[in-house]
Amino acid sequence: MKYDVKDINLAEQGRKRMEWAEQEMPVLRLVHERFVKERPLEGIRLSACLHVTTETGNLMRTLVAGGADVLLCASNPLSTQDDLAAALVAFDNIPVFAIKGESNEVYYQHIIAALDHNPHITMDDGADLVSGVLKQRTDLIPSMYGSTEETTTGVIRLKAMAADGVLNFPVIAVNDSDTKHLFDNRYGTGQSTIDGVIRATNVLLAGKTFVVGGYGFCSRGIAERARGMGSNVIVTEVDPVRALEAAMDGYRVMPMEQAAALADFIVTATGDKHVIDAADFAAMKDGCIIANSGHFNVEIDISALEKMSVEKRQPRAFVDQYILQDGRKINLLGEGRLINLASAEGHPSAVMDMSFANQALASEFLVKNKGKLAHGVHALPKELDREIAALKLKAMGLAIDILTPEQDHYLNSWQEGT
Ligand SMILES: NC(=O)c1ccc[n+]([C@@H]2O[C@H](COP(=O)([O-])OP(=O)(O)OC[C@H]3O[C@@H](n4cnc5c(N)ncnc54)[C@H](O)[C@@H]3O)[C@@H](O)[C@H]2O)c1
User: Measured in angstroms, how far is the CA atom of residue 179 from the centroid of ligand 1?
Assistant: First the structure.
């Protein structure tokens, strides 16, 4: 079996950490148990391009339990957990192509290895496999059942491909499930981004000014958690509705250039480009800490920062300190790549439980509906989304009310008034 991981001897540690994560993934465990019995993915070759974390390890094992022939590569050069990559190779016979810190060149070699697996299904976090299929391997399309996509930025790229008329197979936008973006993006990114900033810097958040770029699902989670740590939080936005929500949630709202002048920390999570640019660097205080938790490393204009700097140091792992001409220091975390995966461990397992139950059910859905789905981007049916939420509630020991027949009738009729 071909694979490319940092050190196969890390496997035992990776296996233990994968088991630890699994305890917090009861919904995925139920899917796993059913997959063992029903084998819905029998005979399916599946290439996954995801953050190679312990939660992803549990998803890969579930897909294998369902009968799939799985290959995994990284969806980001800095997010791989090398021990987990080794564990999947050594204990589960899953070919993994992922090394933390791999160069862009190696990253794309690993994408090619995933495409060479001749997948019937691709599973993406950021649409890199689908891009690879459309740019280099259109020969794979006739035998493809479709693809699944994990994140907001990937869904945006896929919708652009569909609008261009080039996306000629179905893709399930897992991010569009309520049990994904309402929980993973908000609570997962919220907690793990703060975790990443703290692990990289060990700087106190209480009493500091913390600027959050965006007020979407991820960024509102970050704002909420930063406030919980005692920071004074400022939000920047381009969407007036989201900006208004932020204002009414009690945050100060202002343009980035003004916020940059006040910030001790700035974290972006917008999916947009150059949210922090040269004018913002020029406005920043000495010692400002900046990071990104959006999918691609384009949110901070790092090349502008390089040009404005006379020196670059590395005072700690995951911190690049840029010295400007006037002596001010700007600290960039994790090379501008998603900080929650670069310097921490990504989302807690309990939220990935639902995201990855969605992924497993999405691959089963593609197999069951082979040839029936139109080309383009689809959401998973609402019943599956609700089923995942119901299973999660049950696992958390929470019961809820059930509509009575009278209430059901009332909610579906218009005749009754005051
Ligand atoms: N770090 C992670 O683990 C993780 C997890 C999930 C999603 N993501 C990524 O995070 C990014 C955001 O995802 P989301 O689900 O929150 O998206 P979203 O669409 O809900 O929110 C993005 C917000 O950013 C705002 N925005 C866009 N350009 C801006 C600008 N120049 N300045 C200020 N605000 C701007 C938008 O108006 C929107 O409100 C995406 O790239 C997504 O793929 C990361």
Answer: 17
